[in-house]
Amino acid sequence: EAEEYESVLCVKPAVLVYRVPPRASNRGYRAAEWQLDQPAWSGRLRITAKGSTAFIKLEDKTSGELFAQAPVEQFPGIAVESVTDSSRYFVIRVEDGNGRRAFIGVGFVDRGDAFDFNVALQDHFKWVRQQSELARQDVEQGPKLDLGFKEGQTIKLNIANMKKKEGATGNSRPRPAGPGGLSLLPPPPGGKSSSGDRPSSLPPPAQLPGTPITDSLLSWPQPSAAPATDVWGDFAKASGSASNQAQGNTGWVQF
């Protein structure tokens, strides 16, 4: 893993440092209590970042020697607090590297410098939150599955077994072939295949799967029973008259 480098976020050439009296209550710091006309130190301010931590560094204007440093791991937070009576003054918590800490006041002559100081810290910790959110999403999503075919990869389908299973499940009987090789439907249940017999009445309509017979279907006119007459009567009469005509013409010459 590459070592984290330190980047510069903001540089302000003029900053004033004040001694901060102990806070008597939780109402916040007030710059009016600092003796603003008598700063304890003046110099240059730089804000740098290394990883997720920002560092407020107070340095000598000429030599660049470090006067004090305040590590900031969260903003807003206890490391940097605004005063209640001005936008140009802040209270920062400085550390000496040996575990000792102190609260000092810093102020800017120009209000725009104070604005830049505040925005530099906000932008840095906004970036920190975005990086943390992206890392969390990557962990939740995990590695993505690659379901595509690789180069040269093939699959095999056993079609023979599929046909065998389809043939085993199908128990349909072969339909009898009629004239010309046409398949004939089997006779309806309860009926006879002979054309000489005719049922006295048509069976009620069969209920199709998934199509229930509704009241409107039952109200349709149903076919009535065939009349109880000899269906061969006319044909017999015609045959009889033809035979009588043949008998009356006995004088015909047959070849």
**Strand fraction:** 15-25%
Major sheet: size, sense and barrel closure? 7 strands, antiparallel
Summing up helix and strand content along with how strands pair, one would put the structural category as: alpha+beta
Q: What is the third-level CATH name, the topology of the domain at 6-138?
A: PH-domain like
Quickly give the CATH architecture of the domain at 6-138: Roll
Helix content estimate = 10-25%
Strand order of the largest sheet: 4-3-2-1-7-6-5
Extended strand count: 7
Q: What's the CATH class label of the domain at 6-138?
A: Mainly Beta
Shape: elongated
H-E string: EEEEEEEHHHH
Computed over alpha carbons, the radius of gyration is 53 Å
Mean pLDDT, nearest integer?
75
Q: Report the CATH superfamily of the domain at 6-138.
A: Pleckstrin-homology domain (PH domain)/Phosphotyrosine-binding domain (PTB)
Low-pLDDT regions = none
- End-to-end distance: 122 Å
Q: Please, how many helices?
A: 4
What does the oligomeric state look like here? single chain
